[in-house]
């Protein structure tokens, strides 16, 4: 929670501790060692005992204050300041005030932080004046941002997304697809890459594993997919071929599948940690984060260009972007010029803030803080912006779960870009067979041994790939009959036409016939009823009424009862097949004249119609 200003206390060799009692000095050294290994409770007991015997022991006061800060006990930490402000030297008191102010700053309690810092006078024990100035500027900046926030609304992505314990680092394609990292067991499980499509602002496809070629028993995460969906760069750690602890790999979408991942060579990867890639729209420039030598600080942002089939040696973006602190999570927008990145090394609102810089001929523009409410007191990491200008990101709750969220990006942050790819994207379409209006539908490419799903967008479009080796396409949508087309028939005009169900239409291809004066199902009708059961199972949105009839022989009362029994025979069979009743009903309608139905004498059918179509 507490970032760069919470420095572990050091005891300088040339400085003597502020106590004349050697046993108390020894006890302090023991307490400090316990803090270093995380035993805060035992250390607190020792320090309280020390201060009972020497309440002017400055270092013990500082260490006890540090313990309360680390344990998220701001009231107790503040009480240390109140109780010992007259006992400690001014530079030690200043340190207490700065650390306490930084604690409130990191929680977004900016006014409290400002008030504490107003009492700080130089010097500050073991904290340089530049860091104090940085904190003051950040607090003032944050207060001003809260006074004029951007008009931004955040929304959690709906089901079926966010079904995992943790999902983060999303990356988007131009056709409405996101690739993101999932992890179970609240961060202790395996990382894998999953993908989902959307066709409008609220409907998403079921997330599925991106590819068995990519996901493995190792961790795969922090991925970037190019806007055309054909190049994927991702991070994997501790693979047998790794150069460092975590390295970058690349895979290409060919023949409707992802190729075996290739490890980037030493031009990109290093013997240190390399991660958090971001590809330009055409997949030919790669930004990423590394902790290798040659940087300005800890984590730095680097860039590599694809030249032919190879990648150029990575170059540090330099002081225009990087700082002596952590700089990470780059996202290069669709224009190839606008860089969004996270840093804790520039004046901001706390934790990692998002900044924007634009690449020009002579370098990068001065990074601009994206302001409130996009930034806040906590960490902003792992953002991407889609072609329709939605920013996707993740945030966590108190239980450790991490959820995907998004917001519409204000116009002043990124430009509206119309992409042109070297290889034009090919699209198929799904339309209503009656109105010819575009439809958002689930589309499946069917192969000999596999099926790959797509989701058409609000314009009815879904992305085709450059080499199509499927044999059939299947399209499905609520309120419409499923459509299966051969590859050849589809490619004739790249359009799938879905036939809508109509209220009152018969769902039977053949009539259900009964013997004279009987309601027992004939053996030959089972195939038609099985087909009907499958249709009803596939379309739970349909409300089905089973209508029974008889001939005119016999009394009206008798025929009414017989028609009901015939309808119920069909109803019972369908219930046994599909295992539910909520969208099924039956009704007998008694006798019907011969000229009303084109059927043999003494044979009458059960007609099955739809009462209501739900879309």
UniProtKB/TrEMBL annotation:
PROSITE patterns: OMPA_2
Keyword Isomerase attributed: no
Highest taxon listed in the record's lineage: Bacteria
Major location (coarse): membrane
GO CC terms, sorted: cell outer membrane
Domain OmpA-like: 503-615
Protein's cellular compartments: Cell outer membrane
One Pfam family it belongs to: PD40
Membrane listed as a keyword: yes
Keywords carried by this UniProt record: Cell outer membrane, Membrane
InterPro entries registered for this protein in UniProt: 6-blade_b-propeller_TolB-like, Bact_OuterMem_StrucFunc, OMP_bac, OmpA-like, OmpA-like_sf, TPR-like_helical_dom_sf, WD40
Identification of the protein by name: OmpA-like domain-containing protein
């Amino acid at each position: 929670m507490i970032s760069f200003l919470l420095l572990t206390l050091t005891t300088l060799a040339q400085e003597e501790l502020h106590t004349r009692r050697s046993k108390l000095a020894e006890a302090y050294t023991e307490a400090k060692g316990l803090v270093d290994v995380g035993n805060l409770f035992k250390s607190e007991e020792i320090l309280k005992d020390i201060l009972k015997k020497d309440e002017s022991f400055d270092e013990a006061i500082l260490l006890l204050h540090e313990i309360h800060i680390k344990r998220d006990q701001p009231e107790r930490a503040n009480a240390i300041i109140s109780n010992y402000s007259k006992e400690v030297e001014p530079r030690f008191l200043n340190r207490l005030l700065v650390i306490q102010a930084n604690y409130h700053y990191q929680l977004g309690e900016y006014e409290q932080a400002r008030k504490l810092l107003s009492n700080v006078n130089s010097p500050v024990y073991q904290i340089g004046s530049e860091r104090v100035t940085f904190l003051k500027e950040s607090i003032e900046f944050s207060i001003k941002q809260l006074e004029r926030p951007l008009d931004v609304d955040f929304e959690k992505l709906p089901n079926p997304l966010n079904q995992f314990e943790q999902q983060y680092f999303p990356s988007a394609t131009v056709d409405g697809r996101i690739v993101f990292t999932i992890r179970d067991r609240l961060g202790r499980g395996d990382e894998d890459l999953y993908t989902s499509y959307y066709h409008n602002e609220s409907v998403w496809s079921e997330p599925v594993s991106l590819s068995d070629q990519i996901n493995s028993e190792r961790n795969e995460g922090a991925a970037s997919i190019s806007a055309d969906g054909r190049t994927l760069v991702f991070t994997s750690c501790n693979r047998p071929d790794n150069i460092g602890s975590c390295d970058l790999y690349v895979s290409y979408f060919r023949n409707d599948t992802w190729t075996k991942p290739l490890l980037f060579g030493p031009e990109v990867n290093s013997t240190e940690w390399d991660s958090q890639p971001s590809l330009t729209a055409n997949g030919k420039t790669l930004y990423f984060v590394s902790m290798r030598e040659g940087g300005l600080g800890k984590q730095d942002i680097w860039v590599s260009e694809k030249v032919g089939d190879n990648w150029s040696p990575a170059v540090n973006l330099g002081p225009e972007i990087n700082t002596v602190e952590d700089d990470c999570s780059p996202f290069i927008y669709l224009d190839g010029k606008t860089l969004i990145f996270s840093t804790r090394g520039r004046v901001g609102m706390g934790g990692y803030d998002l900044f924007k810089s634009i690449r020009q001929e002579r370098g990068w523009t001065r990074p601009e803080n994206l302001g409130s409410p996009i930034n806040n007191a906590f960490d902003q990491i792992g953002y991407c912006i889609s072609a329709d200008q939605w920013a996707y990101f993740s945030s966590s709750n108190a239980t450790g779960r991490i959820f995907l969220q998004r917001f519409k990006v204000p116009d002043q942050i990124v430009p509206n870009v119309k992409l042109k790819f070297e290889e034009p994207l090919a699209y198929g379409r799904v339309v209503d067979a009656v109105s010819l209006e575009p439809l958002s539908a689930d589309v499946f490419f069917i192969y000999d041994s596999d099926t790959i799903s797509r989701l058409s967008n609000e314009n009815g479009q879904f992305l085709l790939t450059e080499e199509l080796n499927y044999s059939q396409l299947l399209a499905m949508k609520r309120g419409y009959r499923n459509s299966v087309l051969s590859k050849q028939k589809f490619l004739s005009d790249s359009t799938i036409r879905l036939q809508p169900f109509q209220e009152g239409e018969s769902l039977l291809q053949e009539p259900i016939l009964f013997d004279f004066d009987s309601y027992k199902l004939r053996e030959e009708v089972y195939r038609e009823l099985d087909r009907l059961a499958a249709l009803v199972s596939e379309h739970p949105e349909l409300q089905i009424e089973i209508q029974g009839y008889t001939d005119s022989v016999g009394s009206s009362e008798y025929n009414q009862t017989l028609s009901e029994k015939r309808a119920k025979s069909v109803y019972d069979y369908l219930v046994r097949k599909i295992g539910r009743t909520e969208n099924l009903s039956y009704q007998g309608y008694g006798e019907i004249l011969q000229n009303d139905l084109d059927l043999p004498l003494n044979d009458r059918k059960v007609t099955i119609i739809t009462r209501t179509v739900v879309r």
